[in-house]
Amino acid sequence: MAKHSTLPVALIQDRDHGSREANLANIEARVADAAASGAKLVLLQELHNGPYFCQHESVDEFDLAEPIPGPSTERLGQLARQHGVVLVSSLFERRAAGLYHNTAVVFDADGSTAGKYRKMHIPDDPGFYEKFYFTPGDIGFEPIDTSVGRLGVLVCWDQWYPEAARLMALAGAEILLYPTAIGWDPSDEQAEKDRQRNAWILSHRGHAVANGLPVLSCNRIGHEQSPLDAAGIDFWGNSHVLGPQGEFLAEAGNHDAQVLLAEVDMRRSEHVRRIWPFLRDRRIDAYGDLLKRYRD
User: Fold this and answer.
1) Is 279 within the bounds of a domain?
2) Does 280 reside within a domain?
3) Residue 134 in contact with residue 101, Cβ under 8 Å?
């Protein structure tokens, strides 16, 4: 079990501030605010060092990547140690020449690197051309042990896959966390925008319920113009903290930068799983076909 029965958490929902330095300086200020409010676990949004560059395919964007460990991990580790928080970051990792990952790095409260997760599911859709940039993760779905508990860290597109959340839960994750960059095409009708955002929130609530775990999802905000002269993306915010029955513990708006604070009762998962024993009743003898692409 986590060492804190009640865990104060913070999600840093923000927009791109124009440069790596400006974004990291803003993160430093917001993490200080979160720590001053009592947070012990802080989640940042996906690829927080810059704009969401995957709206186009350009070899020049690879210059944004950096090694892990590297300059950003050193700075973020110092930030975690300074404020005594567990910090979940999201970086563009240069692993080798021509080999790059979308990687979440977790820093413990003493500033050490507790672990990392490389994004497993990589999208390739209009405005989200991630397969051009990111090699699928090869670490697997392994929770990361920290001073506040065992964290099941996943990244954005992973959030649509119940298998990913389930495998983290089966490996003993005590909380699921999703650094995210998701938004809509501003030219879409409002009804379509609402359907997309509601589906996104519903997927997270489903992961919480199906696994009896708290879920944290931190999204960015703001309009980011497309380099291809397309409509760009309006990132819809709505970062949220859910309890193990999918209940909202905190939810941010869709336009404003916010340090979203919540208290997560880490004991509730044990209680919920006793009354809804989904792990007990799984028919693992009948799930072999899940390893197939499709049942023809």
Assistant:
1) no
2) no
3) yes
